Amino acid sequence: MTQPSVILATASYDHTIRFWEAKSGRCYRTIQYPDSHINRLEITPDKRFLAAAGNPHIRLFDVNSNSPQPVMSYDSHTNNVMAVGFQCDGNWMYSGSEDGTVKIWDLRAPGCQREYESRAAVNTVVLHPNQTELISGDQNGNIRVWDLTANSCSCELVPEVDTAVRSLTVMWDGSLVVAANNHGTCYVWRLLRGTQSMTNFEPLHKLQAHKGYILKCLLSPEFCEPQRYLATASADNTVKIWNVDGFTLEKTLIGHQRWVWDCVFSVDGAYLITASSDTTARLWNMSTGEEIKVYQGHHKATVCCALHDGAEPSPS
């Protein structure tokens, strides 16, 4: 099978993962996933594998094969895996789980390489663009920075006590971090390099984005420059697009009938894909706010999506 230039995958409470032709909306491959529901999908930087985070394992599937079997399973979490992602060269994977831990996995060796204790269910983990710090958010409202070089927690923040941090996102150049919580609020910090290697958080903005839960927040990618956007997907069935310059509301994407769980930008920031409890995923034009395509095929809530439409990374 030749590799499609655009890889779009969705996962649903119907225990399937689906791969879609982004332009036509045709589902060309379905993987049955009977063991658990899936919380998060992520595609490796080289587009070869799709990671599915379930309960309590992470499974890696070959994007270019028709095999329903995973090529690898990562099994040392003991509860729902809520976050998964990859280092930029694809050498290692990170994960966060409701078991209260953040883990690092070397993709070239079996087993978990490192583990950090958050002492509360971890809902979200992002990798700083410097590739040496992981930032996690948990159910008790803590945000922690894990310094991979020093192998320790270098910073702790609690934007709102006892309010779960649902989603974290970092600007591609490492200048901003945004945390979204269960009260519909986004906290924005400037990230400053301190005199040590440690990152300092300088409060920049508090945005009351939605009345309901924010389930996902996401900053736009590098090739979207000079425009910088923040997307917030919510339990109020909408996705809002904010201009990062002043955090003014640019657009509200209206079309989903139920909670919007996940969203992902195209590599140039011109499009956004969203996943919703209404069983669909949708493709939106960012400049007009119009819905271009509906991906229909799941028969229960579609809770996560992953997209890789970038060029192949050059071999290092």
Automatic annotation (TrEMBL):
WD repeats lie at residues 1-30, 74-108, 115-156, 207-252, 253-294. The keyword Repeat applies. InterPro entries: MLST8 (IPR037588), Quinoprotein_ADH-like_sf (IPR011047), WD40/YVTN_repeat-like_dom_sf (IPR015943), WD40_PAC1 (IPR020472), WD40_repeat_CS (IPR019775), WD40_rpt (IPR001680). The keyword Repeat applies. One of its GO terms (biological process) is regulation of actin cytoskeleton organization. CDD domains: WD40. It is found in: Endosome. GO terms for cellular component: endosome; TORC1 complex; TORC2 complex. Its main location: other. Keywords: Endosome, Repeat, WD repeat. Component of TORC1 complex, which is an essential cell growth regulator that controls plant development. Acts by activating transcription, protein synthesis and ribosome biogenesis, and inhibiting mRNA degradation and autophagy. Belongs to the WD repeat LST8 family. The target of rapamycin complex 1 (TORC1) is composed of at least RAPTOR, LST8 and TOR. This is Target of rapamycin complex subunit LST8.
